[in-house]
Please model this.
Amino acid sequence: MPVKKWSFSDISKFGDFWLKENDRLITLNFALGKKAVFEGQNICELFTPEKFLIKITPLNPSAKRPKNISLLNYDGTIPEKLNKEIDFLQKSGFKVIVSIGSKKEIEIGSNCGQIAFSNSKVLYN
Model:
């Protein structure tokens, strides 16, 4: 997206400021493409499992993005390299959620508004 993004360091500092005692953990959500570099060590250097949890999701296909660019497949398979990083994070104390939506959502296009309305006659002003 063409907006200024925070660095991991900025997000970590914000978490220190934001999270209060007895709050739920802050979720770091990673939607990973096939070319994404995802290394648990980088996360461990700036984030703590006492404040953050890790969620990994597939990239949803959209009207302009094909189905095959996501690192995670909707059939539930996790590539070996990613599985090793997940294992590393879990052994480092992080709760890791691998959130793979329903294959049926992809088939009917309900996971992405762009897909859902791509064949529709709905007009936006």
Summary: The two ends are 22 Å apart (CA to CA). The chain is about 35% helix and 15% strand.
